[in-house]
Amino acid sequence: MAKIVIRYQNQILGEAQLRPGFNTIGRLPAHPICIENLGISRNHAFIVGDIEEKIFILEDLQSLNGTYVNKKRVNKCMLKSNDVITIGQHALEYIEEVPRPRGNPAPAAAAIGREPSLERMDTGRSFPLLKETLYFGNSSSDDIHIPGLMIGKQFASIDRKGTVWVINLLVKRFSHIKLNGEEVNSARLKDGDEIEVGGVAFRFLHPG
Predict the structure, then answer these.
(1) Which of 3, 41, 155, 177 could cross-link 63 (Cys pair, CB 3.0–4.6 Å)?
(2) Which pLDDT score is estimated for 110?
(3) What share of the chain is helix, strand, coil (3-state, %, to 5)?
(4) CA dist., res. 155 & res. 24, Å (int)
């Protein structure tokens, strides 16, 4: 398997697992790799994977500002592990994940050390929870981008309190949060909880 780690100004914004076939990149929310920034075309580029998921090829879709791999502008490029794709001011690192050998399961202690994450349910995009507080909002400076005219900057947050994660609605005028179908203002999260934030659904994953 392979994945893309999305960074902006050295901050990790999220991850996207690459699948066989077309993995499109652009500004539109429908793209599996969506980057909300005016410097990025609505349909900017795509990464296509072969049937066995062993080869991934990046191709630019005649975007206005271009697509770069390791600082070199490209139209089409076969990716290798740790290549850095630059689109606008965002860096997308291509990482090939080495499969764990069969018959050697990881010890339970290793799972406890992994960070929890949010998985966007419509695209499968993963947002690792690496900071004490992450903000939801429609600004490019927000950790988890939620598009929409009625969505404000930093309208909700997810906060770590020791070993506990809590989701909070910060601006109550227009937006809402639902936890497993019930509207809440603040709630403690547990593994597998389904969260709807500003109309976008996520699943909270806590490996520990």
Answers:
(1) 41
(2) 42
(3) 0, 45, 50
(4) 28
Would you say 42 and 26 are in contact if contact means Cβ atoms under 8 Å apart?
yes
Cα(91)–Cα(71) distance, integer angstroms: 10
| Residue 90 confidence (pLDDT) above 90 | yes
At residue 71, the pLDDT reads 93
What is the phi/psi pair of residue 24, to 5°?
Answer: -85, 150
Task: Report residue 127 as tokens.
Answer: 């947002």
Closest Cα to residue 45, out of 32, 19, 55?
32
Contacts by residues 93-99 (CB-CB < 8 Å, ≥ 24 positions apart): 93/4, 93/5, 93/7, 94/2, 94/3, 94/4, 94/47, 94/56, 94/58, 95/2, 95/3, 95/4, 95/5, 96/1, 96/2, 97/1, 97/2, 97/3, 99/1
Q: How far apart are CA 24 and CA 64, in angstroms?
A: 16
Q: Which residues of 97-126 are buried (b: 16+ CB within 10 A; e: fewer)?
A: eeeeeeeeeeeeeeeeeeebbbbbeebebb
pLDDT tens profile 144-176? 888 776 777 888 899 888 788 999 888 876 668
Q: Is 173 exposed, middle or buried (0-12, 13-18, 19+ CB in 10 A)?
A: exposed
> First and final CA of the chain: distance in angstroms?
23
Judge whether residue 208 has pLDDT over 70: no
Q: What is the pTM of this model?
A: 0.50
Mapped onto helix, strand or coil, the DSSP state of residue 169 is: strand
